[in-house]
Amino acid sequence: MGWSNNDTKFMRRALSLAQNGEGHVSPNPLVGAVLVKNGRIIGEGYHEGFGSPHAEVNTIRKAGKAAAGSTLYVTLEPCSHFGKGKKTPPCVPLIIKSGIKRVIIAAKDANPKVDGISQLKKAGLAVECGLLSKEAELQNEFFFHFMRTGKPFVAIKLAQSRNGKIGIKGKRNVRISGKQFDSYVQRLRNRYDSILVGINTVISDNPRLTCRMSGGRNPVRIILDETFKLPLNAKVLARAKKETVIIATSGKRNRKKEQMLKSLGVHILVCGRETVSFKSLLQQLPTFGITSVLIEGGAKTVSSALREKAADKIILAISPNKLPENGAIDSPFAAPSARKFFKRTTLRKLGPDAVIEACARC
Question: How far is it, in rounded angstroms, from Cα 86 to Cα 318?
Fold first, then answer.
């Protein structure tokens, strides 16, 4: 397509607006929209929260009658369908009714029920798709992955020292990464639907696993605990009656303690006879509206996810500092052979830490 510099500029603005919905719209995608007439923005908006009006609706409402004859830039194909579980009416009829003449779309919707492009064209609108499509799909990597596979998107987040260590046995809350990466982790907790750790992490660190970012949301907490070693007074259970906490367990679980945990508001998922299967767990999580999982577990949990080929992304912070060798815990990514798990790698600096983000080759 022969898009102009202005087309690109307005679509980048729409992508920027879409990001404002991070942490609020899941399992819906992030969507932003901009209305332009005579080279000037006359309305803009984004999808602000699950169940609330879509980006196109917010944008057209702001423009009012001026929308007639304008061009709509939108980051995802406008929805065109009604259906079970859908909270809002389709956007396509409103776009047509408003008198918009041209629609430029970044990415086609991966939901097979959506047929917005075809319907807009049938109504006589000029429609073009694909402007900044890679950026739009990356922005909604959870949504596209879930629509194409039916499984939640899984990322492993880990921080290791320069000598490949992630902690010290018997010592709680060993600080490895710097403040900048720690702040980024809070943004990740806001972005992902859920956070997953193993029981050893809970016992050793007693974390709350909440999001400490201003205005952020707390993710669903998932704990791998095959025999219910979890203490009933663990901090992670403090809000289990108000915020979802899930224990993924096995057939070896203690049935009496299971009832005690349920009385605290905990959801129990049996994911294997002897050990917890990531495959079984990921199949069950969508019933909770979970389309993304951030693994923050220790070496055992991360190694299990890699072994079961459950990971889609790896986020690894490497500190310039070393940990003492005596009693230190090796990172699953410390050995040179671990490079086999990485593909399409990017490297950036966050404060003192080098941060590798890569698709997982699992």
Answer: 42
Active-site residue set: 56
Q: What is the pLDDT of residue 336?
A: 81
User: In Å, what is the CA distance from 44 to each residue of 26, 37, 98, 182, 341?
Assistant: 21, 12, 15, 33, 41
Q: Which residues pair with 330 in a beta bridge?
A: 165
Q: What is the mean pLDDT of residues 335-342?
A: 84
Q: What is the pLDDT of residues 166-192, one digit of tens each?
A: 998 877 778 899 999 999 999 999 999
The DSSP secondary-structure symbol of 19 reads G
Contact in structure between 208 and 308 (CB atoms under 8 Å): no
Exposure on the CB side of residue 332, measured as CA atoms within 13 A: 21
Q: Where are the alpha helices (DSSP H) in the chain?
A: 5-18, 55-63, 92-98, 116-122, 133-139, 141-149, 179-191, 199-205, 255-263, 278-284, 299-307
Sign of the torsion angle spanned by Cα atoms 296, 311, 349, 15: negative
**What mean pLDDT value characterizes the chain?**
94
Joined tokens for residue 325:
């060798």
Element (H, E) at 176: none
Which secondary structure element, helix H or strand E, spans residue 46, and what is its range?
Answer: strand 40-46
